[in-house]
Design brief:
heterodimer, A: Non-ribosomal Peptide Synthetase Peptidyl Carrier Protein, Chain A, globular, B: alpha/beta, Peroxisomal Thiolase, Chain A, domain 1, 10 helices, 28% helix, 18% strand
């Protein structure tokens, strides 16, 4: 499973989007605000889940602001930092 | 002031809604065992009767429910059903919410602890944590139903429900809320199932829950929620009657006071260590725990059943699981006087007790009882 697909599965399953399937999440849609509608609690949950599933830490708000733009941005962030 | 019961919402292993529970009473069953499924957990436990909350999605958007765990969904469904039963689905913006829970969100709490055990502090799930706090169900109820009155969660194990009811009635007395949604909720979890399995080694797996058989472990762990919409007594009459009094105390220091014309629902849940209440011999005594199971807020289910008894003015017989006989017999004849009062009694092994008395409206008068509404 590629990073983007895995990320979408995590969003649906771990953030409990029972009315969405991973395939319905578009790669470039904003994760927060008017896009998918995630909020600050989801952000913290995502930080935990990304570390758990990918071993990648999002260390501060600045990194998070960049990474959490969209699935594309988050996948790129993870790909750059994946452990060897 | 007394409190009028305007609507009731129940959710349990037996199904959903007061009409479902009423049908079970009318049909003399089935017992909660009939709904039990294997717990399927590696720890090993006994079958339990799960609550189905899927039809919450008919009432609320799935997106608004996504953060809610099983306990909160169970509580919300029962609270929404209470408003619907009262024909007041919109509720009142100033409605208070008082929630009792003996265990709280045990399923979520253990899941949260598991995230820490697996991945350390950094792996602690904030979503699980937010649901693990005891007042999460009450908060979700207020947010989803738009109830902006006082909001409180009470936990005192088996006495949780009667304590929450005392508080709800007090809010009405003080005018702090024009109506109150008061209820109780508890859930099953694998750890609880395992503990009960270990505790009840001597349990006869085939035996039904048998409240009046002493010294046997026949409890059946259950989960569920029950809510009532209460209003001040000056509100229009309701068939469910009124909450005439809520007492709490401790034996032998205090003595529960039973109106002489009341039927007593004992709420003995077949735990081996259940306290045996010293009941007055001239009262009709019945136990309906076999229909909803063993859970700390079981007293709330007794109050729901007592409300139906008061509304219909009659008792419902309960098949005795040990011999197929009827525990309450001889009260269903046409000449039997209508039952206008019902007491729900719960006594802990340490002697703490809660006693709720319901009365039908026509029989109610300010002078009918010597003590005030709340006695402690």
């Amino acid at each position: 499973m590629d990073i983007k697909t895995k990320l979408k599965t995590i969003i649906v399953e771990e953030l409990n989007f029972e009315d969405l399937t991973p395939a319905e999440i578009l790669n470039d849609v904003p994760l927060f605000g008017d896009g998918l509608g995630l909020d600050s609690l989801d952000a913290v949950e995502l930080v935990v889940q990304i570390q758990k599933h990918f071993g990648v830490k999002i260390k501060n708000m600045e990194e998070g602001r960049t990474a959490f733009q969209s699935v594309n941005a988050l996948a790129a962030f993870i790909a750059e930092r994946l452990p060897e | 002031m007394k409190a009028v019961i305007r609507g009731i919402g129940v959710v349990g292993g037996f199904g959903t809604g007061i009409s479902t529970l009423e049908k079970i009473l009318m049909d003399h069953g089935p017992f909660i065992e009939s709904f039990a499924v294997p717990d399927g957990q590696p720890l090993g436990g006994e079958p339990y009767a799960p609550v189905d909350t899927r039809n919450l999605k008919e009432r609320f958007s799935p997106r608004s429910l996504r953060r809610m765990d099983h306990l909160s969904r169970t509580a919300l469904l029962a609270a929404a059903l209470a408003l619907e039963d009262a024909a007041d689905p919109g509720g009142n913006a100033d409605t208070g919410v008082a929630v009792a829970s003996g265990y709280g969100a045990v399923r979520t709490t253990f899941a949260f602890l598991d995230t820490i055990l697996e991945a350390g502090d950094a792996g602690a799930s904030p979503t699980l944590f937010s649901n693990s706090v005891l007042n999460a169900p009450a908060a979700h109820i207020s947010m989803h139903l738009g109830a902006r009155g006082p909001n409180l969660t009470v936990s005192r194990f088996e006495m949780s429900f009667s304590d929450a009811l005392s508080i709800a009635v007090q809010w009405l007395e003080e005018g702090r809320a024009p109506s109150v949604l008061v209820g109780g909720v508890d859930e099953w979890c694998p750890v609880l199932g395992h503990c009960h399995h270990r505790f009840s080694k001597t349990r006869d797996a085939a035996a039904f829950l048998s409240p009046f058989c002493t010294g046997l472990e026949r409890a059946r762990i259950a989960e569920g929620a029950v809510f009532f919409l209460l209003s001040p007594e000056m509100e229009p009459a309701s068939g469910y009657g009124v909450v005439e009094s809520v007492e709490s105390g401790r034996l032998p220091r205090d003595t529960p006071t039973f109106p002489k014309d009341a039927v007593i629902l004992t709420g003995i849940d077949s735990h081996r260590d259940s306290a045996r209440p010293r009941l007055p011999g001239d009262h009709r005594v019945v136990d309906y725990t076999g229909y909803y199971g063993t859970l700390p807020v079981g007293m709330g289910f007794d109050m729901a059943i007592a409300s139906v008894i008061v509304r219909r003015g009659r008792l419902f017989s309960v098949p005795d699981s040990t011999g197929g006989e009827t525990v309450v017999d001889g009260f269903q004849t046409e000449k039997a006087p209508k039952i206008r009062r019902a007491c729900c009694l719960n006594i802990t092994p340490s002697g703490a007790y809660g006693l709720i008395t319901l009365a039908s409206r026509p029989d109610f008068s300010e002078n009918s009882r010597p003590q005030g509404l709340m006695k402690s």
